[in-house]
Amino acid sequence: MRVTVDWKAACQAATSARTTTGVGATAPFSGAGGGVGHHGPVTDSEPARPTVPAPRPPDLTDAERVARATAFADLMATRRSVRDLAPDPVPLDAVRAAVRAAASAPSGANLQPWRFVLVTDPEVKRRIREGAEAEERDFYGRRAGAEWLSALAPLGTDADKPFLTTAPVLVVV
């Protein structure tokens, strides 16, 4: 049996349930707003914040540029992908702070044209999981190539996405 989720309706339901206060809430966050030179409100209750132009970076020698680029590449090599997510509660203020940082990421014309929705409602998370798993089953069964499937095999990644219902908060972009 194929489960079909009307993603537009699910997103509209999540957005219409907006609140920035409580458990079980679905809270929208917007990166867009105010035009060039302004970061939009991170929550519906926050005003847009003016941006401050970054100072010109110091003049560096080629050797210093290479050293900094190498140090950054080394740092990035230490990052890890986490596939075993804990169901432990996360303070919504911590999630909001992370989204605030993400909402200010550079974008074309500095418009930050994204919208973040925090989903904590178990029913909405269940519907998202059902839709994601249906899409993944179709992908793994019909569209994924052998190379892709063999790359995923050692990771234990498959169409089952239990973390979508056990995670305390989903951040939908």
TrEMBL record:
Domain of life according to the entry: Bacteria
- What is an example of a GO molecular function annotated in this UniProt entry? oxidoreductase activity
In the record, which residues are listed under signal peptide?
none
Write out the entry's keywords from A to Z. Flavoprotein, FMN, Oxidoreductase
What protein am I looking at? Nitroreductase domain-containing protein
Q: Looking at the Swiss-Prot or TrEMBL record, what is one Pfam family this protein matches?
A: Nitroreductase
Q: Quick one: where's region Disordered?
A: 16-62
Q: The Nitroreductase domain covers which part of the protein?
A: 77-173
